[in-house]
Amino acid sequence: MPFITSEGKVTNKAAYTCLALDITGRKDLLGLWVSEAEGSNFWLSVLTELKNRGLQDILIACVDGLKGFPGAINTVFPGTEIQLCIIHLIRNTLRYIASKDQKSFMKELRLVYSAPTEEAALIALDRLEENWGKKYSLSIRTWKQN
Q1: pLDDT, position 61
Q2: 78: part of which helix (H) or strand (E)?
């Protein structure tokens, strides 16, 4: 997003948001931050600010895979369960799948992330590995780790 500095120069900065979902399902935008660069130190300062503003705990944090982000979260809110955002996980997976295989692979992968239970997801993941593991072992391993 372009910004104009006090010197009249145009510079690019990113806007970051933090969305919360409380125990009743109510959504709340906790803040909007503008920064030139995203990193674990940036998020550590955001999380510290949120704690100082009264946020007591985070049960589950859904993050984008930024290195050091889980550590920053657990520094301020120990015990938070960290999950990789499903959209980021899918995008990352598609980067390693040949375009001719993407439609078929994604059809089977959808059975993993849309499974009604953990057991069903694990069965679907095993089936995905049987069908695609030799060709796309790195992508399968990413799903198993996450």
Answers
A1: 94
A2: none
Structural Rg of the chain based on CA atoms: 19
- Residues in the chain, total: 146
Residue 79 to residue 74: CA distance in whole angstroms: 6
CB 40 within 8 A of CB 72: yes
Distance between CA 62 and CA 88 in Å, rounded? 10
104-132 mean pLDDT: 96
> E strands within the chain?
2-4, 10-12, 14-21, 27-35, 60-63, 81-84
Predicted pLDDT at 39: 86
CB distance 35 to 42 below 8 Å: yes
* Best CA proximity match to 113, nearest among 142, 133, 73: 142
Q: Give dist(CA 13, CA 117) in Å, integer.
A: 40
Average confidence (pLDDT) over 73-93 = 92
Given a cut of 80, whether residue 71 has pLDDT beyond it is: yes
pLDDT the model gives residue 79 = 92
pTM: 0.70
Query: What are the sequence ranges of the domains in the chain?
Result: 2-84, 86-145
